[in-house]
Design a protein that fits this description.
Blueprint (H helix, E strand, L loop, with lengths): L2 H13 L15 E3 L15 E4 L2 E4 L19 E10 L6 E2 L3 E10 L11 E8 L4 E4 L1 E4 L4 E7 L4 E11 L1 H11 L7 E8 L2 E10 L8 E3 L2 H4 L3 E4 L10 E7 L5 H7 L12 E2 L6 E5 L7 E3 L15 E4 L2 E4 L10 H8 L3 E6 L1 H13 L22 E7 L2 E6 L4 E7 L8 E2 L6 H6 L8 E5 L10 H21 L4 E5 L10 H15 L5 E3 L2 H11 L9 H15 L3
Parallel strand pairs: 5-18, 22-25, 22-27, 27-28, 28-29
Antiparallel strand pairs: 1-19, 2-3, 4-6, 6-10, 7-8, 7-11, 8-20, 9-10, 11-17, 11-18, 12-13, 12-16, 13-15, 14-15, 16-26, 20-21, 23-24, 24-25
Helix pairs in contact: 6-11, 8-9
Amino acid sequence: MTTKRFAVLLAILTLLVVGSIPVFLDVLPTMKFSVVSIKTTTKQYWSHGVQKGNQVTVETETHTWNVSTGFIGSRGQTSALKTDVIFLSDDNSTFQGDIITLRLHARDDNGRRRYLGGDLWRAAIYNATSRFGSMGKVIDHDNGTYTVHFYAGFSGQVVVQIMLVLQREAIKHQQLIFLPMEFRGYWTGIFKSDGKTENSICFMQREGHWKDMCEYPHPRALGNTVFLCRPPKSLGCNTLAGISASRHSGDGNNKLRTNRTYQFKIPNAPRVIKGFNDRLLIQSSVKSGIITYSVPRCESDLLEPLVTGYWLGMRWYSLVCRNREWNHAKEVQKCLQDKDVYFIGDSTTRQWYQQMLDIAGYPINATDDNWRKRVNTIPGDYNVSGEDAYDMMVTDLKNNVNFTFHHHALSLHGFVPISRFPFSIDVLDELTAPKCNYVIVISLWAHFDFWTTDSYTERLSMIAKGIQHLRGRCPNTVIAIKGSHVRNSMLNYWIYYDMNRIMKDVFRGHGVFFIDIWDMNFAFVAAHQGTMTIHMPMTLIKEEVYMFLSHACLK
């Protein structure tokens, strides 16, 4: 490859990314970039500009407001059926290892160009027969245009699918109106004393004021957010034994969400873009001028690549870092020998816990049907302790490994005993063993969609401080943060999507390994033509745990 052609390629890849999302070529391992010709496509759009050849020159008017040019017009929301898709890379000459680039020009129902960004798109390429699937990186240029990058990790024909998940207006409503509102969820407080039981309503509050409430502050865990209960009829505030959760309240906040449900349904969203050539042939032959970049090791605080990876069959090939299979139990046991391994989170973290025990060679045979069940006994030199599946420990006596699972506090369960659902910060603060051989996974998202953004961010920030304090005591502690994925409702899709961003922002620079499973999960669904759900198949969970072990066992 000539120096000139290489410079052109770098310029193209760099210019297609704006804002704070750079193209990190050095973290795209074994990715091959071939020089392609970028087609110049000239289309006449409605705009305040003058067409001159292949360029649009925007006129700068210096005169006063000319109302005589006024006209009757209509501006609608973004329509997937009207939006234009343009291939910027050569769709007739695509090779395995190439970056495939598309441009979206958003239009409304009237076919009119949109000049505001903020829509949420999801882009995938897949071949269901070969079980290949990869998600594209969608870059919002905040002017109605979006750039989509795919990695051609497979040779053969693929389907290109681009979906308008949510329109800007739905996101703005959730971001500015719905999420800042408190009292969107509540618990029933269960108070017990001397054989007597009384119930009352409990909730969280950060803003405003209150009067005559049972207060349960925990600044180290919740910051300025306070857990409150209305006083029970006769028992004291100090008799709170447990809480029982209801996801959403039945007051005006629920009505506020119901009145906006049309924004989360067809014909508004989600809608797949039609009307463009969505079949692409990726060729396997090697072209001249291929550049190969190596993927980094699975270290902490990694930069985010253009594309996170792809599924081929039942394997996830990460482009974030060099993940690998961990098929030999003795190798895993050797890595974790003399260590205390903690899983702190929700039921999706519980899936990780069960899968880890399986990978480490303990005969529990975790499946999609039994992972929820508490492991009572394990044949061999193992000890199982803990009261239930929400708080348990398995000890490998031969290798001196402790595997502990703690469900986080203030969860959305039918009954939550206060004593068995500790705050994550309390678990971290209690880690004071002299050897300091800790390996920790933390994941808090699935039970937090009714928290305000401020309260959720504050809770994560308190955990980040706890990590700093733990590192002060135990500098070599290995910590991973597991990101979020969508549940099965469009109403909270963007909320979980934004939680992923918040987690990245809060824990960036704290020496943790962030495991972003958002694209990994959607790519799995595309490759295997499955369905997104809160508890994904254990075959997928195994690959997520492989990512974790690829970091935890680096040394």
